Amino acid sequence: MFTNIRRWVSQFFNRSRTINNEPLNKVSLIGIILIDIFILINVFAGLNDISQWHLSPSQTYPCYAEWGNYRAQTTKNKDYEILRLSLFNQVNNRFSFQETYQRAEVGHLGKVSEVCLNYANLKDKIDTPENQRSQKTIEEKQAKISRLEQSNSNIRKQYDSTLLEKIAKQPREQSINAIAVEKAKQTLDQNNREISTLQAEISTLQNQLLSKPESTQFLALLKDGKQFSEVEAGYQKAEFWYPTIQLFFQALFLLPLILIALFVNNLAQRRGYGLIALMSWHLLVIFLIPLILKIFEFLQVGVLFQFLFDIVSVVFGGLLFLVSYLYIFLIPLLGFGLIKFFQKFVFNPKVQAANRVQSLHCIRCAKKLRQQDSHCPHCGYYQYVECQNCHDLTYKKLPYCKQCGVTQRVNNM
Fold first, then answer.
1. DSSP of 124-183
2. Within 10 Å of residue 39's Cβ, how many Cβ atoms?
3. Minimal CA–CA distance to 121: which of 63, 66, 79?
4. Distance between CA atoms of 407 and 387, rounded to whole angstroms?
5. d(CA 127, CA 25)
6. Closest by alpha carbon to 368, among 357, 353, 354, 352?
7. How far is Cα 134 from Cα 131, in angstroms, rounded to an integer?
8. CA 369, CA 337: separation in Å to the nearest integer?
9. What is the pLDDT of residue 313?
């Protein structure tokens, strides 16, 4: 096994830096590497673009996060706060909430949730000029309360020193404070009364905003547990399958490139086009690298990981680090299975040898041979072996002798 691995590695590097078994000069090798880097960057850019072709869970269910935050809040004024966030949208943006949600569909696969579109439509109905004026008035009153509270804070800071000056019978004109003791208390009382009045007015305006028909309709949707459960279930399902969808589209992007590079490489090798064979080999490796990386990335966040995560959660509770142990043992087993599959069915030496003998190519390197060649002029490989029955020469790695037809051992090198 290790001998085969060493041979594959040696062949890999040999094919990556030689043309017709002749070493590539350093300048040309550097040029090819720079081209490889440029293509690799563009391949990853293409993969990133195509992975976003399908709507993400947050794009399919854009109302889920805001709706979920609202239901999780326990503050008293959460109804008013979510209404406040719905105002001034069309003043600050060109598009309504519903148009913003729908624009995610442009140039993408998938549809935005109908429940979320209805959610956005109800939010847009709240954003009326009348409600905007009410909210602006509320904000002005809140700003005035902040100024009055700041004024009270400054007065209280000066009060103690002003009181000491009065006890010491210091003349008022020599005081470092702006307000006298009597005036300070009077101002504080007046400010507090004004703050209470403003707070009552704000409360009234907020209740008026909450009681508007468009507001009650929107709040009724927010408190509808059935509709939220539908959105939540859809979001979780979309989040579960999204990595798989991304891998599918990324593979769809890479597989044609891999197949074209493989076809060109095989054709160039058969016809002896050394430079084309070298370039197509580099392209094949470049296209395979991102695919392998994306597969491993998928294994960390995709369906398999979620499946193992759920099993460990049910069986072992909080011992989620055991997922790493499962991966450590499972991934090598899967890799071993894939290697055996490709060795037996895809890259079977018997099948490869039969095809190469039939088309008059070297059994080992697949380069073109002449009828009389017993050794490959490209790699030096001897094409024949002695038959155990008739002792005549027959092709290596083929199951039967071409002279007597007796079964041969095909594990020879």
1. HHH--HHHHHHHHHHHHHHHHHHHHHHHHHHHHHHHHHHHHHHHTT--GGG-SSSS-HHH
2. 15
3. 63
4. 9
5. 70
6. 357
7. 5
8. 35
9. 64
| Residue 26 tokens, joined | 């350093």
pLDDT of residue 39: 87
CA distance 20 to 149: 86
Q: From the CB of residue 164, how many other CB atoms can be counted at a distance below 10 Å?
A: 11
What does the alpha-carbon distance between residue 137 and residue 141 come to, in Å, rounded to a whole number? 6
Is residue 88 within 8 A of residue 99, CB to CB? The reply is no
Residue 254, CB half-sphere, CA atoms under 13 Å: how many? Answer: 28
Shortest CA distance to 12 belongs to which of 289, 333, 383?
289
> Can you tell me the distance from the alpha carbon of 131 to that of 211, in angstroms, rounded to the nearest whole number?
11
Strands (E) in 182-267, as ranges, are: none
Domain ranges of the chain: 308-347, 351-413
Neighbours of 148 (CB within 10 A): 19
Contacts with 335 (C-beta within 8 Å, 6 or more apart), sequence order: none
Q: Average pLDDT by consecutive 10-residue portion of the chain (413 residues)?
A: 55 56 65 83 89 92 93 90 86 83 91 94 92 93 92 73 50 48 75 92 93 93 92 91 89 91 82 75 84 76 61 62 63 66 62 82 83 85 88 88 83 52
Which residues share a beta bridge with 268?
none
Q: How far apart are CA 330 and CA 324, in angstroms?
A: 10
Residue type, 273: Y
Q: How high is the pLDDT of residue 355?
A: 80
| Half-sphere exposure in the Cβ direction for 358 (13 Å, CA) | 7
Question: Can you give the pLDDT at residue 14?
Answer: 59
Phi-psi category of 55—alpha, beta or left, where left has phi over 0 and alpha has psi -120 to 50? beta
Compute the distance between CA of residue 118 and CA of residue 114 in angstroms, rounded to an integer. Answer: 6
CA angle 47, 102, 84 (to 5 degrees): 120
Which amino acid is residue 251, in one-letter code?
Answer: A
Q: Among candidates 344, 366, 341, 371, which has minimal Cα distance to 355?
A: 366
